[in-house]
Each structure stands twice: as structure tokens, then as C-alpha cells.
Specification:
Layout (H helix, E strand, L loop, with lengths): L17 E3 L1 H7 L2 E6 L11 H14 L4 E7 L3 H13 L2 E8 L6 H5 L2 H7 L3 E6 L4 H14 L4 E3 L7 H21 L5 E6 L3 H12 L6 E5 L4 H19 L11 E3 L12 H14 L8 H13 L8 E6 L26
Parallel strand pairs: 2-10, 3-4, 3-6, 4-5, 7-8, 7-10, 8-9
Antiparallel strand pairs: 1-2
Helix pairs in contact: 2-3, 2-7, 3-5, 7-8, 7-9, 8-9, 10-11
The structure holds pyridoxal-5'-phosphate.
The site of pyridoxal-5'-phosphate has 20 residues, from α3, β7 and α8.
Length: 341
């Protein structure tokens, strides 16, 4: 495996810091570290920037003048794609799916949506339940008919190319831990469209690190989530030149913390946001990292994450979304979600 063989545009601030969390560790009586992928640098950062380093290199290689992607209204992936496209002088068009039914104006226009538009991206909104991949292909075809060279990126940037960004993260994290003598017992993070976990698991397997990864689900039930991650991990391993490196039992997701559905905040998630903010001065987001943190906290409290375990929480970013979810902190719309999912 040799990542330098893959085209890549270096836009992320790497390596991201690996830091101890002393006050959280004390409160939970576990040694907890944090990998700051919320600090990747592009338009408030986040995990999608690592994936986009490889994806946007493909777009540039094909001479794309328009990049398209899709996601939920408050998609962090959409925002980072819009910023990356701006940086490369490419146009960007985004399809947003209304997966929550929220009508709060901050949800529909602030947070990530505001930033999409500031980066010059155009957006169009589709109702929840739309086949977004198919909708994007239709729009892309129409743009191609107009003579544009269009590069489409799947939701979350989760394909074998995007997952290379997290193969890279796996190697970076292990190198940092080696340098500082930190023996990691488990990596915990929020999992959604699966590229983060698939890349991490593949990278760790390829270097035979023996560090288990626990993905905390934010959307699908466990079987579906694990299968999605495993399928992508297998394809990523093939792409890397180490087919078969990932075994099915290396892919573990806990989906007990999704709550009522994707994009709908949970009480435990909101509590985790306050906990990280008040104990460590860190910002989580209600859609992903808060649910990931809530899962970690609960599994520690239940003893399922053992007393002697040294944990690294991979902070995948998302804080820009807080400004689209301010009502969730004042007992507003989130208490009675218009549902969907
Ligand atoms: C997209 C995202 C995730 C999930 O990563 P996937 O690669 O889609 O599984 C987690 N946290 C944040 C903040 C995200 O934006």
C-alpha cells in the first residue's frame, strides 16, 4: 500500500492534532484522547476534507468545470465540497434533501446552507425520501448536455476514492500515537455514509495495527450500517492493492444512539454537546459527532468500554451545523420533530 500513488490535492491542515481530554477523562474515569479532524481547515473543517483531497484530484484530472454532490439540508459534506470547488475555481451545484421536515429558517438557510452559498455554490432542495443519487445523475446529465464537464461526488464523498482520505488518517493517527508512546485500545467515531469508518478500518488493517474501531450510527440500523461499511472497505482495500485485508468482524457499528432518525437531535446527543463544550471547550454537532460522543459516554458508563481502555474519539467536525439547529437548544422544533428519516 502506497498512498502517494493516488492523485491528491493537499488542502487539509494535516496532521490534525491528537490531544488528551483531561477534564472529560476525569469525569468519565477513562483515558480519552481526541483526534481533531474538526480542524482540517477548510471552511470550518471536518472529515469530508480528507476525502475531498482525493476526490477533487479526480475532478481536476478530468478537467471538470462543475462539481456536483448531494446531502441533507445541513450537510457538512456539501459545505466542504463547495469550499474546495471554490478554491479550485470550479463551479459547484448541490442537491439538498429535506430529511427532517424542519421549517425553522435557521435550519433552511443558516449554518452549512449559509456557507454553501457564501462559497458560491448553487443549491436545489428535494423532498425527504427522494432517490438523491438518481436525482443528481439526472441533473448532471442535463448539465453535460449544456456542454459542461461535470464531476459527481456521492453523498458524504463515500466511495473508494474518498475513503482513501481515511486510510491516510489511519496512518497519520498511528504514527502520532507511536511517536508519543500512546497505545490506543479503541477508536470511536460517528458513522454515516460509511467512508470514514471504511477508510479507517482498511488503513488500520493494511498496516496491521490491531486497533479496533467502533462506529456510532447516525442513520441506519446496525446490520445495514455494518454491511455498508464492510462493502466499501472491501472495495477500498482492492483499490489500495491489498484485497481481502479487511475481515467482516473488523467492522463494528453500534446504532443504539440514532434516536428518531437522521438529522433529528437526541437528548443524549444534546447533553454530550454541553458536556464537551463545558468540560473541554470543544464544539460537537447535533447530527453526527454529538451522537457519536453520546454513544461513547453511555458505553463507558455501562462498562462496555472497559476501565483500562485508552480511547481515541475521532472528532469528525460539524460545528457549523449548530447554527442551523439553535432551536434544539431552546426547546424548539427538535422536541417535536416533523419526523421523516
Ligand atoms: C459526514 C460526517 C460524519 C460521518 O462520516 P461518514 O464518512 O459519512 O460515515 C461524521 N461526522 C460529521 C460531522 C460528518 O459531517
Amino acid at each position: 500500500m502506497h498512498l502517494a500513488r493516488f492523485p491528491r490535492i493537499r488542502a487539509a491542515h494535516l496532521p490534525t492534532p491528537l490531544e488528551p481530554l483531561p477534564r472529560l477523562s476525569k469525569a468519565l474515569r477513562r483515558e480519552i484522547w481526541i483526534k481533531r479532524d474538526d480542524c482540517t481547515g477548510l471552511s470550518t473543517g471536518g472529515n469530508k476534507t480528507r476525502k475531498l483531497e482525493f476526490l477533487m484530484a479526480e475532478a481536476e484530472a478530468m478537467g471538470a468545470d462543475l462539481v456536483m454532490t448531494q446531502g441533507a439540508t445541513q450537510s457538512n459534506h456539501a459545505r466542504q465540497t463547495a469550499a474546495f470547488a471554490a478554491k479550485l475555481g470550479m463551479r459547484c451545484h448541490i442537491l439538498l434533501e429535506d430529511r427532517t421536515g424542519y421549517s425553522d429558517p435557521n435550519y433552511t438557510t443558516n449554518g452549512n446552507v449559509l456557507l454553501d452559498h457564501l462559497h458560491g455554490a448553487t443549491t436545489e432542495v428535494h423532498p425527504g425520501g427522494t432517490d438523491m443519487a438518481a436525482a443528481m445523475e439526472r441533473v448532471a446529465e442535463a448539465k453535460r448536455d449544456e456542454g459542461l464537464r461535470v464531476y459527481t461526488i456521492p453523498g458524504g464523498g463515500s466511495n473508494p476514492t474518498g475513503a482513501l482520505g481515511y486510510v491516510n488518517c489511519a496512518m497519520e493517527l498511528v504514527a502520532q500515537a507511536n511517536d508519543s508512546g500512546l497505545a490506543i485500545d479503541r477508536i470511536v467515531h460517528a458513522t454515516g455514509s460509511s467512508g470514514t469508518q471504511a477508510g479507517l478500518v482498511t488503513g488500520l488493517a493494511a498496516i496491521n495495527a490491531g486497533i479496533p474501531v467502533l462506529g456510532i450510527g447516525t442513520r441506519a440500523p446496525r446490520d445495514k450500517q455494518e454491511q455498508m461499511v464492510f462493502d466499501l472497505a472491501m472495495r477500498t482495500a482492492e483499490r489500495l492493492g491489498c484485497p481481502g485485508a479487511v475481515a467482516r468482524d473488523m467492522v463494528v457499528a453500534n446504532t443504539d444512539y440514532v434516536g428518531e432518525g437522521y438529522g433529528l437531535p437526541t437528548p443524549e446527543g444534546l447533553a454530550a454537546i454541553r458536556m464537551f463544550a463545558e468540560l473541554e471547550g470543544l464544539l460537537l454537532d447535533p447530527v453526527y459527532s454529538a451522537k457519536g460522543a453520546a454513544g461513547m459516554v453511555d458505553l463507558i458508563r455501562k462498562g462496555e468500554i472497559g476501565r483500562d481502555e485508552r480511547i481515541v474519539f475521532l472528532h469528525t467536525g460539524g460545528a457549523a451545523g449548530l447554527f442551523g439547529y439553535d432551536f434544539a437548544f431552546s426547546g424548539g422544533q427538535s422536541a417535536a420533530p416533523a419526523a421523516a428519516g
